[in-house]
Automatic annotation (TrEMBL):
Belongs to the FAH family. PANTHER family: FUMARYLACETOACETATE HYDROLASE DOMAIN-CONTAINING PROTEIN 2A, FUMARYLACETOACETATE HYDROLASE DOMAIN-CONTAINING PROTEIN 2A-RELATED. Residues 85-305 form the Fumarylacetoacetase-like C-terminal domain. Keywords: Hydrolase, Isomerase, Metal-binding. Residues 37-82 form the Fumarylacetoacetase N-terminal domain. This is 2-hydroxyhepta-2,4-diene-1,7-dioate isomerase domain protein. Its cofactor is Mg(2+). GO terms for molecular function: hydrolase activity; isomerase activity; metal ion binding. SUPFAM superfamilies: FAH. GO terms for biological process: small molecule metabolic process. InterPro entries: FAA_hydro_N (IPR041072), FAH (IPR051121), Fumarylacetoacetase-like_C (IPR011234), Fumarylacetoacetase_C_sf (IPR036663). Pfam families: FAA_hydro_N_2 (PF18288), FAA_hydrolase (PF01557).
Amino acid sequence: MNSCNLITYRSESGPRAGIVIGGDVFDPALIFDNSAYATVQGMLDDWDEMKAHLAELSRIVAGGTLNNVPLEACELLAPLPRPATIYCVGANFRDHVEAVAKRFGMSLDANPHERGLDPWFFLKSPACVVGPDATVPLATAFLDWEGELAVIIGRRARDVPVDRALDHVAGYAVANDLSARDRAQREKVAAGSPFRFDWIGHKNFDGACPMGPWIVLADSIPEPQALAIRTSVNGTIKQESNMREMIFTVAEQIAFLSTRITLYPGDVVLTGTPAGTGIETGDCLQRGDRVEVEIECVGKLVTHVR
């Protein structure tokens, strides 16, 4: 089967889903006579059937009988403009944990796996999502970058074992978990207080979750732990690592989440960021900056700061 990517693009009637094959965009709602497929969420809600359609579409495209639009002519939006829920794992690359601990003079705990701990998650609002080439307002004094692999759920998952967790993945995208470091802690609250940390202010604001440029199908990436990732700011490389450096794998994260809550099609899991973020050095984004996050076999996500 030809490789397929899922996109959302701006059409005359508003955001519309498309399937990219070989640089051309095809309209699944028209081809399969199903209005639900006009959105990527609609395709995910019918994912098992949709996968069969995608195999069929690849065969039809090979025959050259379908109308299409060149990808380069489309204005891409976030592939999932409003995901159902965005789960974000924290402190999931050892080098990032070590760098932050060193920066703030903190003692370094043993590997969470060795301590028998579970992955540690927080949430981002779906309203934070923006697409490729988006411009994000500089609304914080310390805006930081975090290049991450985004996992898009395609099948309902509840209490799934690790060895079956990837069966519930529809595909992967590139994400940037932008963070307002100066809003991470509440003022005038004691350092030892459990009420000191502000996850809403830290991780949720307009434009806080750039995602895109498309969703690459999971079938095209059989081993997500083998993907290289690189983040650059104005052409200077800030982060360069590989998913094999994760503390908890993609499968382990999905399996754990599914023991706490049911995962549904359209949910997104951000899987952690490697060393090289601004919090480790005191660097932060400024107006006019251009941030690029690139993940091997997935794509490149560009974000501008205004």
